[in-house]
Amino acid sequence: MTRLRHYQQIHHTLKQEIQQGVYPTGSLLPSENELCATFQTTRMTVRQALNELVRDGFIERRHGKGSLVTSTRPSLGLLSFRGFSDVVGNTSHQVRTTFLNPPAPADWPAPFVYPLSADEQQAGCIAINRLRYADDVPVMLEHTFVPIQNATASLLTEPFLDGSLFRTLSVRHQIDIRNLEQSLRAVAARPEQATIFGCRRNTPLLYIERRYLTSLPDFYVYSLLYCHTEQYAISNIL
Amino acid sequence: MTRLRHYQQIHHTLKQEIQQGVYPTGSLLPSENELCATFQTTRMTVRQALNELVRDGFIERRHGKGSLVTSTRPSLGLLSFRGFSDVVGNTSHQVRTTFLNPPAPADWPAPFVYPLSADEQQAGCIAINRLRYADDVPVMLEHTFVPIQNATASLLTEPFLDGSLFRTLSVRHQIDIRNLEQSLRAVAARPEQATIFGCRRNTPLLYIERRYLTSLPDFYVYSLLYCHTEQYAISNIL
DNA sequence: AAGTGGTCTAGACCACGCC
DNA sequence: GCGTGGTCTAGACCACTTT
Q1: How far is B110 from chain A (nearest CA, A)?
Q2: CA-based angle A14:A19:A22, to the nearest 5?
Q3: Which helix (H) or strand (E) element contains residue A226?
Q4: What is residue B216's three-state secondary structure?
Q5: Looking at the complex, does the CB of residue B179 fall below 8 Å from at least one CB of chain A?
Q6: Is the CB of A238 under 7 A from strand D?
Q7: Does B180 reach chain A within 8 Å, measured CB to CB?
Q8: Contacts of B206 in chain A (CB under 8 A)
């Protein structure tokens, strides 16, 4: 393990403080010069840490003003995934998530859509089945598979932070989502899916296979998503 | 118009040279120190230009080696096709594009899916209707609308560079795609679409509405995409 | 060993926002 | 006018890759 660079230390500290509410959404971080004094370094180093926070989607920089906190949860901006609460249309929609069953250890589905490493295969996974609502209309059925590791085992016993898997992984386990690969298709609703969404059989559904890449090498999270898009489109999935 | 910063000048020069083939895919850019000498500046400034090229997706930086050219065109928002037989999506498919009719001036469809400015509304648009094939199977019907401006009028008379609209805009008119907003749905194939794709009516299609944001303020490009995903899934290139 | 990019210092001046 | 972030200089040492 290579030594943590100074700017990474600063980035990590500020990220945690943002996530813990020290700097709420809409507030300003300390100025670059203040941060230089705090962390005993120069602007160049502080700026590198702040640029990382921009890339993460936590802050925006305002010339002549300061670093504005725009979000207290990770969203990686352009080359990024967006959590469901950001995905559906305008943020004015009320979003709710239910668990179809509690997160439970399971075998990997066979065959699985993504190739699995021997370690993943052997360790098994935690299966998380959730149904997302927009304005109390069921719109997304999400099957998530998290490989079982030391860090992830506690997902089985402790409730998710704010009901969010990724927020829990980030805050409690320092595992951040860095990127995703996804594959998109349109499919016809199977009977059980039609029942869940309250639509006719064979209604077109948006089907998305996702592999999330994380800050932990060789640790991936997998999701299969079925979206009922007759009333709500899915936006900004990049 | 504010003066072009030095690092922007360097970024622009290198980008053009990459696009023009001076540095082909797989080659290395001059080292930071060489670029410092060439552009009469310091590493800090050169590095900022190189970081922009990384963000654009043109190069990757290799510690101890150099700046590797990974692409001669910006990949933002492009879609790739992934056959069901592909294990990891590494398999590349032969992709071909045909024009259903030549690019022609047109009125905006009414109603249009995105709100238009008064300028856009009045200027009208160039309508481009293309059909994309993967391995000679028709997989994507793309309706693109480009507002008519001084810069874009020549799209009507000159053929596209490499058949690519975005490459033409970038190389010939210095208009780069910076970002996109998109909205996704699954819809049932209409009869004329079923004919084009050679599928049954009501086959589920992936429908994508896109607004591309460009380096030109208030200049957007719009696309409506219909994708037949029974044989080929759509992957986002991030 | 030599060359590359990665990190970092200690300054400087400029452009923007606010009072 | 003052503080902010944006740009830039001229160095330094470190870590990685190749020879």
Answers
A1: 20
A2: 70
A3: strand A220-227
A4: coil
A5: yes
A6: no
A7: yes
A8: 184-186, 206
Give residues with Cβ within 8 angstroms of B92, minimum separation 6.
none
Report CA-CA distances (Å) from B126 to B97, B224, B227: 18, 14, 22
What are the tens digits of pLDDT across the range B159-212?
888 888 988 888 888 788 877 778 888 999 999 999 999 999 999 999 988 888
How far apart are the CA of A157 and the nearest CA of chain B, in angstroms? Answer: 34
Residue A78: predicted pLDDT: 28
pLDDT tens, residue by residue, A29-73:
999 999 999 999 999 999 999 999 998 888 999 999 999 998 776
B230 pLDDT exceeds 70?
A: yes
CATH architecture of B79-236: 3-Layer(aba) Sandwich (3.40)
Tokens of B86: 């592909």
Nearest residue: Cα versus C1' of D9? B42
Pick A83-227's CATH classification: 1.20.1250.20, 3.30.70.1290, 3.40.1410.10, 1.10.760.10: 3.40.1410.10
A182 vs B: CB within 8 A: yes
Q: Residue B106 corresponds to which tokens in the numbers above? A: 């047109």
